Model the fold of this input.
Amino acid sequence: MDTVTKFACQALQQGTAALSLAHKQLANQAADVFAPADRPAKMEVLPISEDALRQVNDRLQKLNATDIAEAERGLYPESLLFDRPWFDIAAAYPRIWLDMPGIWDRSSRKSYQEFAEGIDKDGYPGYYLQNFHYQTDGYLSDTSAELYDLQVEILFSGTADAMRRRILAPMKTGLDRFSDVEPVDIRVLDVATGTGRTLRSLRGMLPKAKLFGLDLSPAYLRKANALLSELPGELPQLCQANMEELPYRDEYFHAVSCVFTFHELPGAARQNAIDSVYRVLKPGGTFTVCDSLQKGDVAVMDVMLENFPIVFHEPYHSNYARDDMEARLEAAGFEAIETYDYFASKYWVARKPEVAAEAE
Ligand SMILES: C[S@@+](CC[C@H](N)C(=O)[O-])C[C@H]1O[C@@H](n2cnc3c(N)ncnc32)[C@H](O)[C@@H]1O
Done:
C-alpha cells in the first residue's frame, strides 16, 4: 500500500472513531436534558475508568492496524478499507436523532416488544419479536434497516466492518482445503447476514465465488439486496429463512460465516443454528463466527459487557456471555476449534471433519 493511501485510510479510521465519540457525547447530553431520568441506561450502568478507556482504545488501534495489514498482504482489496455507504450515512444521521426519543421512551418503560401497526409478525420465533437495542420496529421495518448500519458503526466507533473482516483470514485458510475446486464453484453462506456488510467483504476476498446470504428479516434483506446490487460480479443469492433450519441441502457449502448474531439468540436456538450450519457444510468446510466478547475473555472489557445489555435491550446477551460455545460446536460435530479476539469481538473457527463421526 502506498504511503498516501495508508495515511488516508488511517485518517478515515481516526475520523470515524472521533465522529462516533462526538455523537455519543452529544446523544448523552441530549438524553440528560430530554430523556426520562429513571431510564436504566442512566441508573444502572457501571462506571468505566480512564485507564480502562485507554486500554479499550489500544484494542481499537490494533484492530484497525490489522485491517490495513491484511489488505496490504493481499487478502482483500484496499478499496474495502474505504467502503462506507456515505450516501446512506448522510441520509440516516438526522433520522437517528429523530428516532432517539422513541428509544428513550421504550428504554425508560422497559418496553421491548413494540411494532408499528401493519407489521406482519406471523411466522417469526418469539425470541425474534423484540426491539433489540430498543430499536424502532426491531428488525421488521425498512426504517430499522435504513438506520441499522449507522447505529452499529456508532456503537463500535467505526470499526464494525473491520471486526467483520477478521473472519476472512481463517475462512481463506479453510478454503485452501478445496484448492481443487474452481473459484466459481466455491459456495459460501453468510447466515443472519442483515444488510449484507459481511457479504460485501466476502465479495472483495472471493470475487468469483457463489455467495449466499440468509436472514429472517425481509426489510434487512431488501436493504442487503440494494447494497449488494452496487457491486460488480454475480449478485449473492439472498434467502429469507430461520438459521435454525437452513433451507439448503446437506454438505452444500465450502464455508459458512455468522457475524454479530449468536448473542441475540436463546441458548437452544444457538445450538439449533450451529447444528444446522454443520449439516449444510461440506466435510472439511469451515464455520467462522464473529460475535461479542464473552465474560472473562479480556478483563478490561468485562465492565462494557455488563453495561451492554443494560443500555441496549439485549435479552440473551448475559446468557451468551457465559455460554460455552466451544462445547456447542463440539456437540454439533465440529473439530479443530480455535478462538481469538479483536477489539469488542470474539471469533470461533471450526472445521467439519473430513469424515463425519459415525452416529453411536
Ligand atoms: C445484530 S444483526 C447482525 C447482522 C449482520 N450479520 C451484521 O454483521 O451486521 C442480527 C441479524 O440476525 C438476524 N436474525 C436473528 N435471528 C435470526 C434467525 N433465527 N434466523 C435468521 N436470521 C436471524 C436479524 O434479522 C438481524 O439481521
